[in-house]
Amino acid sequence: MEDLQRRAESAENEIKQLMSRIEELRKQTTTVTPANDSEEMEKLKVENDKLKYRINIMKRALTETVEGQFSIIGELKNIFKKSLIKSYPESSDFNIEVVISSQPKYGDYQCNSAMALSKILKESGTKVSPVEVAKTLIGNIPANEIIELLSTAGPGFINITLSQKFVVRQIANMCLEGVSPPKVDKKKVVIDFSSPNIAKEMHVGHLRSTIIGDSLARLLEYLGHDVVRLNHVGDWGTQFGMLLAHLNDKYPDYLNNPLPIGDLQAFYKESKKRFDEDAEFKKRAYAAVVELQAHDPDQTKRWQLICDTSRKEFQKIYDRLDIKLTERGESFYQDSMKRIVEDLKQKNLLVYEEGRYVMFPQKEGLNPLTVVKSDGGYTYDTSDIAALCHRLEVEKADWIIYVTDLGQSSHFESLFDCMEHAGYIDKNRVRIDHVGFGVVLGENKKRLKTRSGDTIRLVDLLDEGIKKSMDKLIEKNRDSVMSPEELEQAKTSVAYGCIKYADLSNNRKGDYIFSFDKMLEDKGNTAVYLLYMYTRIRSIARLANVEPKQLLNYAKNKGIKIEDPKEIKLAKEILKFYDVIQKITDDLLLHSLCEYLYNISTVFSDFYDSCYCVEKDRNTGEVIKVNMDRMLLCEVTANILAKCFDILGLKPVNRM
Ligand code: ARG
Known about the structure:
By secondary structure, this protein is α/β, with parallel strands linked by helices. Among the domains are: about 190-235 and about 330-440, Rossmann fold, CATH 3.40.50.620; about 240-320, no CATH class; about 460-650, Isoleucyl-tRNA Synthetase, Domain 1. It has 23 helices and 16 strands. It has helices at about 1-30, 40-65, 70-85, 115-125, 130-140, 165-175, 205-220, 240-250, 265-275, 280-295, 295-320, 335-345, 380-395, 410-420, 460-475, 485-505, 515-520, 525-545, 550-560, 565-575, 575-585, 590-610, 630-650, and strands spanning about 100, 110, 145-155, 155-160, 190, 225-230, 325, 350-355, 355-360, 370, 400-405, 430-435, 440, 510-515, 615, 625. A five-stranded parallel sheet has the order 7-6-5-11-12, with helices on both faces. The protein is globular. Arginine binds near residues 232, 234, 384, 402 and 404. Arginine (ARG) binds near residues 196 and 197.
């Protein structure tokens, strides 16, 4: 701490000196008239720029002196990197890894890079054993406030124990400031998720995209990024031909009858049947698409009506799950598609093949994109090209994320490859991710379907969740102790919480089995267990009659004492939150956050079982002693849980 203070002071002094030097130079510059000495002026300008640059570096160095909350792994890596540069400057590019220790006997964190580093050194002619490398790295670790103890183990592992002072300080900050986000460079992020298709059903695949996309958006919003949540609905394309023609036949009076379609899916099926069976109808359907694409007012009105009907249905789901999205469907890009296709043609990037214009990716094995169909129409690929351009050029996105099933991986691979080749994407400036996910299976391990083999309607699924969660609450006699409002809140929190959590707690890359019975269990890594744990922790403060304000005052005036091994374990677990957040920001795998939630809950249980927080008189039940330091740990744990719930889109309740 003192060392830090000294460093900060000396950096500040240096900045002051640089500032006064700049001021001096500025004065000089004004006395030199450009007419008589432009060369001198130029020199001073260069000098000035150099100084400004140095100031910026100094300022950055100042802010880099680890303040606020941050990923400990990230910071440990920085520290080890500095040691690496000092120890083996010739290998300073080497990527040092730090991980959380698998067992307490190996310290809190571990650096296992000495083995790989020794190999690399050997290849370049320096023979040092991994143990020696580990020792040298340890010897050159710069002064820091995070590490208390470093030791080598086995063939060259480095075990890292955190400084107790550091842990206490970070927890104390969390008491005072809440679970504040780590500092990040603010980015403009576009997340394309949910994106169902108009008139077709919104299926469980879209549900997954909705849940995962919303959670990623919540995470990035928490980190302070500027997030645009886009619903790239399928609202354009040939299927509209048959819908328009069918609407015209069935409801010629649609203008005076604003909501003729009750069941859009049935309507879709009817029109599909006619399209497949009736040649004359098919002809009219094709003609309708052409008219729509030429902006015929009547067809446009019909199209609007169909989209509105779908939109209302989608919105019901979004409202229930509390999901915010901005609709910007495929049709939005109609006009820009023409321009972009022209540009691609001009750049000679399109190949004319069997009447179609296609674009081949550079990487082998990828499918070409169909940019223009043989009838001159555009495709899903074309609208994705245009959407990507819009996100880059108009939205000025630094980061674009697509959340769809893994089945679309090759589509996105081709898209990104082609767009990079066309010069639209600059990989050094933008990050682009396809966040793919597996299939939702039923308990029979086959694709989730209704008993009759139909796709499950999402509304029905949510209704069933509500019913089952209520049954569960009643089974546990919660209705006898909770008010009707509390019961209502608990019911929705559990129902939607468990559906979201079941999805998010599974590695998204795998398929997952949808089972209400499993997700409603109150043991293990389930939403029910965690939501329950949260209410339990919150109720401790109620039991002790301690207001959050009192806790805050205590933390402000007295700080926090963390001494018992179980308290220390909990505190260290709390601080891992930022490591997990960092990891998810890199790999976009949200199940790590669920694993963390579950771990911290079990560590808390362990702490609570053996560390008294509130002591009560056995006979009267009166509170006789409250351990405020432990109450603070409870408070911070609950705040961490609440933050995780918030990121996952779960809504905790006071009672359940
Ligand atoms: N509507 C598509 C589907 O249901 C998903 C769209 C995903 N987003 C995108 N930009 N392609 O499969």
